[in-house]
Amino acid sequence: MRTIIHVDLDAFFCAIEEQRDPSLHGKAFAVGAQPNQRGVVASCSYPARHHGVRSAMAMARALSLCPQLIIVPSRHAAYRAASAQVMALLHSVTPQVEQISIDEAFLDVSALLPEDAEPEAAYRLAQHCQQRIKRELQLSCSVGVASNKMVAKIATDYGKANAGKKNSPQAICVVPPGEEAAFLAPLPTSALWGVGPKTEAALARLGLNTIGDLARHPPEDLLRRFGQHGYDLSQHARGIDKRPIVTFREVKSVSSETTFVHDVTDWDQLHDTLRELVDDVVHRLQRHQLQGSTVKLKLRWPDFTTPTRQMTLPAPTDETGALLGAATSILQQLWIEGTPVRLLGVGVTGLSSREQLSLWDAPKKAEEHAKTPAREAASSDAPPASEPAVADSPEWQKHQEKQQKLQHVLELLHKRFGPSLVQRGCRNKTIHIERFDND
């Protein structure tokens, strides 16, 4: 029998901000941008939650619910650093750790407990993890323990919800082996993974309002109505989840996006922002020694319609010019001159590892990189499209070699001095890119 522990840091972003500024403790505050910057609540303190404030809520709405709400700017670098410390601590307990977000992880502690261990032993181990995180990192967390990942996660949520009106739940909930279905039965179907508002409504139309209702329903009917998802729901409702702990996840995409403070209708501003976003993507690709072959662009209009387009390159690359060229070409196709843009995003998929280049030597695969198409529009500020460059010309090969060397030098400088020391030229003085991380 497996024993899985789910660890969820309580109001993580807010906890880090309280460490920075202890005067915030016990006050209603939210982490995010100001309402006039179209801010969204990235995290909120428990006193703020008592007023109805929630993560992902528009900051303007949060202020209407809690007029005394204090707004604290996000500091994602600090959150990532603290998250790394927590994960390192969990890895000191067991190597079987699966991080599922910046503030959540599963641990398979089966090997640390006797085969016939009582639930109390699992509770003590969960409490040990919780107390170490509190003592060594001054962070509160809630913990769920069960025989599988799904039930452990739901146990954490259940413990938090029933912890009462505390400043931090610091909850522990253990579901003994064999009692998974009984634990889940009275809970609403929305507590299950994979049950969103649409699925919940569809189940309710069948008279299935609780997980117990779902468990008693014939699995054949759920399979007929919902396909494989229906079968999975039937299994989960019975407390069955055979998924193993995944200690390594392959990065499948790298992306960056920004929501403008005011809708943008100017090509120059859109293109300059696109440069900044591509630079951010390239920096992270190179930090992880990756390159990509498909560029994806996303726009959002004022009515929240969000069209996307993508372009696949002949060969993978991590070179700014090639990626910006493809992104610029897509933007020219997707954007109609004068149309207001609320959000702009760019991403790279089709990832593969890249070879580390020496500082001054030409890339070993320069000829392959040279075949990557690029439009002159990548270095032009004007919206009209232009003819593709000749990819196999000697001039283009030299250009690609120079770009590879330049990118590698920039990467070395960024690693040593930070990404703000040296940047590529851009018409706008400053463009702020805000990342949103779920709490």
Describe the overall structure:
This protein is globular. With 439 residues, it is of the alpha+beta class. The longest helix has 24 residues. The relative contact order is 0.10. Among the domains are: 65 residues, MutS, DNA mismatch repair protein, domain I; 55 residues, 5' to 3' exonuclease, C-terminal subdomain (DNA polymerase, domain 1), CATH 1.10.150.20; 165 residues, Dna Ligase, domain 1. The chain is built from 15 helices and 13 strands.
What's the total helix number? 15
Q: Terminal Cα separation, in Å?
A: 31 Å
- CATH C-level class of one domain is Alpha Beta
Describe the strand arrangement of the main beta sheet, using strand numbers.
Answer: 5-6-1-7-8
- Average pLDDT across residues? 85
Q: Just name the CATH architecture of one domain.
A: 2-Layer Sandwich
Morphology = globular
In the predicted model, the low-confidence regions spanning at least 5 consecutive residues are 356-392, 426-439
Number of strands: 13
CATH topology of one domain: Dna Ligase, domain 1
What portion of residues is helical? 25-40%
Brief write-up:
The chain has 439 residues and is of the alpha+beta class. Among the domains are: 12-76, MutS, DNA mismatch repair protein, domain I (3-Layer(aba) Sandwich); 183-237, Orthogonal Bundle (DNA polymerase, domain 1), CATH 1.10.150; 253-417, Dna Ligase, domain 1 (2-Layer Sandwich), CATH 3.30.1490.100. It has helices at residues 12-20, 46-49, 59-65, 76-93, 119-137, 149-161, 180-184, 197-205, 211-216, 219-226, 228-237, 267-287, 320-334, 366-370, 394-417, and strands at 4-9, 29-32, 41-44, 70-72, 97-101, 104-108, 141-146, 172-174, 253-264, 290-300, 308-317, 341-349, 352-353.
